[in-house]
Amino acid sequence: MSLVLDPAAQDLLFREARTANTFTDEPVTDEQVQAIYDLVKFGPTSMNQSPLRVVLVRSPEARERLVRHMAEGNQKKTAAAPLVAILAADNEFHEELPQLFPHFPQAKDMFAGSREAREKNATLNAALQAAYFIIGVRAAGLAAGPMTGLDLAAVQKEFLDDDHTPLMVVNIGKPGPDAWFPRGPRLAYDDVVTTV
Questions:
Q1: Using an 8 Å Cβ cutoff, are 126 and 52 in contact?
Q2: Is pLDDT at 19 greater than 70 in this prediction?
Q3: What's the start-to-end Cα distance of the chain, in Å?
Q4: Which of 20, 101, 108, 138 could form a disulfide with 175, with the two C-beta atoms 3.0–4.6 Å apart?
Protein backbone atom coordinates (compact mmCIF):
# COMPACT_ATOMS: atom_id res chain seq x y z
CA MET A 1 0.00 0.00 0.00
CA SER A 2 1.34 3.41 -0.91
CA LEU A 3 0.82 6.78 0.72
CA VAL A 4 -1.88 9.06 -0.62
CA LEU A 5 0.21 12.21 -0.17
CA ASP A 6 1.99 13.28 -3.35
CA PRO A 7 5.65 12.09 -3.40
CA ALA A 8 6.88 15.68 -3.87
CA ALA A 9 5.05 16.69 -0.70
CA GLN A 10 6.49 13.66 1.10
CA ASP A 11 9.96 14.82 0.07
CA LEU A 12 9.28 18.42 1.13
CA LEU A 13 8.03 17.44 4.57
CA PHE A 14 10.25 14.45 5.36
CA ARG A 15 12.70 12.80 2.95
CA GLU A 16 14.44 15.92 1.63
CA ALA A 17 13.79 18.14 4.66
CA ARG A 18 16.76 18.71 6.92
CA THR A 19 17.69 20.66 10.01
CA ALA A 20 19.22 23.89 8.72
CA ASN A 21 22.38 25.26 10.31
CA THR A 22 22.75 28.37 8.14
CA PHE A 23 20.16 30.69 6.63
CA THR A 24 19.94 33.41 4.02
CA ASP A 25 18.95 36.90 5.17
CA GLU A 26 15.53 36.65 3.46
CA PRO A 27 12.98 37.65 6.10
CA VAL A 28 10.27 35.37 7.44
CA THR A 29 7.05 37.39 7.50
CA ASP A 30 4.26 37.48 10.05
CA GLU A 31 1.97 36.28 7.25
CA GLN A 32 4.11 33.16 6.78
CA VAL A 33 4.06 32.42 10.50
CA GLN A 34 0.27 32.96 10.58
CA ALA A 35 -0.15 30.53 7.66
CA ILE A 36 2.03 27.96 9.42
CA TYR A 37 -0.03 28.24 12.60
CA ASP A 38 -3.34 28.16 10.71
CA LEU A 39 -2.28 24.81 9.23
CA VAL A 40 -0.70 23.10 12.23
CA LYS A 41 -3.33 24.13 14.79
CA PHE A 42 -5.41 21.22 13.49
CA GLY A 43 -2.89 18.60 14.65
CA PRO A 44 -4.37 16.44 17.42
CA THR A 45 -3.65 16.83 21.12
CA SER A 46 -5.20 15.05 24.09
CA MET A 47 -8.62 16.57 24.82
CA ASN A 48 -7.72 19.29 22.32
CA GLN A 49 -5.52 20.83 25.03
CA SER A 50 -3.43 22.80 22.53
CA PRO A 51 -0.86 23.97 25.13
CA LEU A 52 1.85 25.15 22.70
CA ARG A 53 2.73 28.83 22.99
CA VAL A 54 5.17 30.54 20.64
CA VAL A 55 7.38 33.55 21.31
CA LEU A 56 8.77 35.04 18.09
CA VAL A 57 12.16 36.65 18.67
CA ARG A 58 12.52 39.44 16.11
CA SER A 59 14.16 42.49 17.66
CA PRO A 60 17.96 42.70 17.85
CA GLU A 61 17.73 43.29 21.61
CA ALA A 62 15.62 40.20 22.21
CA ARG A 63 17.87 38.16 19.92
CA GLU A 64 20.91 39.19 21.93
CA ARG A 65 19.16 38.23 25.16
CA LEU A 66 18.31 34.81 23.73
CA VAL A 67 21.68 34.06 22.12
CA ARG A 68 23.55 34.37 25.41
CA HIS A 69 21.45 31.47 26.80
CA MET A 70 22.14 29.18 23.83
CA ALA A 71 24.84 26.50 23.94
CA GLU A 72 28.04 27.76 22.36
CA GLY A 73 27.56 25.68 19.20
CA ASN A 74 24.07 27.12 18.68
CA GLN A 75 24.80 30.80 19.29
CA LYS A 76 26.05 31.77 15.83
CA LYS A 77 23.18 30.17 13.92
CA THR A 78 20.58 31.58 16.31
CA ALA A 79 22.11 35.04 15.95
CA ALA A 80 21.97 34.79 12.14
CA ALA A 81 18.57 33.13 11.54
CA PRO A 82 15.93 35.43 10.02
CA LEU A 83 13.42 34.38 12.69
CA VAL A 84 13.71 32.47 15.95
CA ALA A 85 10.77 30.92 17.78
CA ILE A 86 10.75 29.85 21.42
CA LEU A 87 8.29 26.97 21.73
CA ALA A 88 6.80 26.62 25.19
CA ALA A 89 4.15 24.64 27.06
CA ASP A 90 1.38 26.57 28.79
CA ASN A 91 0.88 24.87 32.15
CA GLU A 92 -2.42 26.73 32.58
CA PHE A 93 -3.87 25.31 29.35
CA HIS A 94 -6.89 24.06 31.28
CA GLU A 95 -8.25 27.61 31.41
CA GLU A 96 -8.94 27.32 27.66
CA LEU A 97 -10.66 23.92 27.83
CA PRO A 98 -14.23 25.30 28.09
CA GLN A 99 -13.65 26.81 24.63
CA LEU A 100 -11.46 24.04 23.17
CA PHE A 101 -13.29 20.98 24.56
CA PRO A 102 -16.88 22.23 25.04
CA HIS A 103 -18.62 18.86 24.88
CA PHE A 104 -17.04 17.90 28.24
CA PRO A 105 -17.66 20.82 30.63
CA GLN A 106 -15.78 19.12 33.48
CA ALA A 107 -12.50 19.06 31.55
CA LYS A 108 -11.17 22.25 33.13
CA ASP A 109 -11.97 21.01 36.64
CA MET A 110 -10.10 17.74 36.00
CA PHE A 111 -6.84 19.67 35.80
CA ALA A 112 -7.54 22.64 38.07
CA GLY A 113 -6.37 20.96 41.27
CA SER A 114 -3.11 19.39 40.07
CA ARG A 115 -0.22 21.46 38.74
CA GLU A 116 1.74 18.21 38.30
CA ALA A 117 -0.92 16.73 36.01
CA ARG A 118 -1.11 19.98 34.03
CA GLU A 119 2.66 20.13 33.56
CA LYS A 120 2.81 16.50 32.42
CA ASN A 121 -0.01 16.99 29.92
CA ALA A 122 1.26 20.37 28.76
CA THR A 123 4.77 19.04 28.10
CA LEU A 124 3.60 15.99 26.15
CA ASN A 125 1.00 17.78 24.06
CA ALA A 126 3.10 20.88 23.40
CA ALA A 127 5.90 18.58 22.22
CA LEU A 128 3.43 17.04 19.75
CA GLN A 129 2.52 20.52 18.58
CA ALA A 130 6.18 21.48 18.31
CA ALA A 131 6.63 18.62 15.85
CA TYR A 132 3.61 19.84 13.89
CA PHE A 133 5.12 23.33 13.91
CA ILE A 134 8.36 22.07 12.40
CA ILE A 135 6.42 20.25 9.66
CA GLY A 136 4.42 23.43 9.08
CA VAL A 137 7.63 25.42 8.63
CA ARG A 138 8.67 22.89 6.01
CA ALA A 139 5.24 23.09 4.33
CA ALA A 140 5.81 26.85 3.98
CA GLY A 141 8.96 26.13 1.96
CA LEU A 142 11.22 27.18 4.82
CA ALA A 143 13.81 25.29 6.82
CA ALA A 144 13.70 24.77 10.57
CA GLY A 145 16.60 24.38 12.94
CA PRO A 146 15.11 23.02 16.19
CA MET A 147 17.47 23.05 19.17
CA THR A 148 17.37 22.01 22.81
CA GLY A 149 20.98 23.01 23.46
CA LEU A 150 20.23 25.99 25.64
CA ASP A 151 19.68 27.00 29.25
CA LEU A 152 15.93 26.42 29.43
CA ALA A 153 15.59 27.84 32.94
CA ALA A 154 17.33 31.06 31.87
CA VAL A 155 15.15 31.33 28.75
CA GLN A 156 12.05 30.87 30.89
CA LYS A 157 13.17 33.63 33.23
CA GLU A 158 14.13 35.94 30.36
CA PHE A 159 11.09 35.49 28.09
CA LEU A 160 8.30 33.63 29.91
CA ASP A 161 6.71 33.28 33.33
CA ASP A 162 6.31 30.43 35.80
CA ASP A 163 3.24 29.17 33.96
CA HIS A 164 5.12 28.57 30.70
CA THR A 165 7.86 25.97 30.27
CA PRO A 166 10.19 26.37 27.28
CA LEU A 167 10.72 23.20 25.25
CA MET A 168 13.04 24.29 22.44
CA VAL A 169 14.17 27.07 20.16
CA VAL A 170 13.56 26.83 16.41
CA ASN A 171 15.56 28.87 13.90
CA ILE A 172 13.47 29.54 10.79
CA GLY A 173 14.31 30.75 7.29
CA LYS A 174 15.55 29.87 3.83
CA PRO A 175 18.61 27.60 4.03
CA GLY A 176 21.92 29.30 3.40
CA PRO A 177 25.29 28.01 2.15
CA ASP A 178 26.44 24.73 3.68
CA ALA A 179 23.19 24.52 5.64
CA TRP A 180 23.17 20.75 6.01
CA PHE A 181 25.16 18.27 8.00
CA PRO A 182 25.31 14.81 6.37
CA ARG A 183 22.02 12.94 6.71
CA GLY A 184 22.08 10.82 9.85
CA PRO A 185 21.06 7.16 9.68
CA ARG A 186 17.57 6.05 10.65
CA LEU A 187 16.36 2.85 12.27
CA ALA A 188 14.70 0.26 10.02
CA TYR A 189 11.00 -0.51 10.30
CA ASP A 190 11.68 -3.91 11.93
CA ASP A 191 13.88 -2.26 14.54
CA VAL A 192 11.03 0.01 15.62
CA VAL A 193 7.73 -1.77 15.05
CA THR A 194 6.66 -4.87 16.96
CA THR A 195 3.41 -6.69 16.34
CA VAL A 196 1.84 -8.51 19.27
A1: yes
A2: yes
A3: 21
A4: 20
Specify whether the CB–CB gap between 192 and 155 falls below 8 A: no
- CA distances to 43, 93, 95, 194 from 117, rounded to whole Å, are 22, 11, 14, 30
HSE-up (13 A, CA, CB side) for residue 168: 18
Buried b (16+ CB within 10 A) or exposed e, 28-41: beeebbeebeeebe
Answer yes or no: are the C-beta atoms of 150 and 69 closer than 8 Å.
yes
**pLDDT band at residue 2, thresholds of 50, 70 and 90?**
confident
Contact 93, 49 (CB under 8 A): yes
The burial of 110, by beta-carbon neighbours within 10 Å (0-12 exposed, 13-18 middle, 19 or more buried), is given as middle
Q: What's the one-letter identity of residue 125?
A: N
Give kind and range of the element (H or E) at residue 62: helix 60-67
Please indicate, yes or no, whether the overall pTM of this predicted structure exceeds 0.85: yes
* Average pLDDT value over all residues in the chain: 96
Coil/strand/helix, residue 38: helix
Give the residue from 6, 167, 104, 106 showing the smallest Cα distance to 159: 167
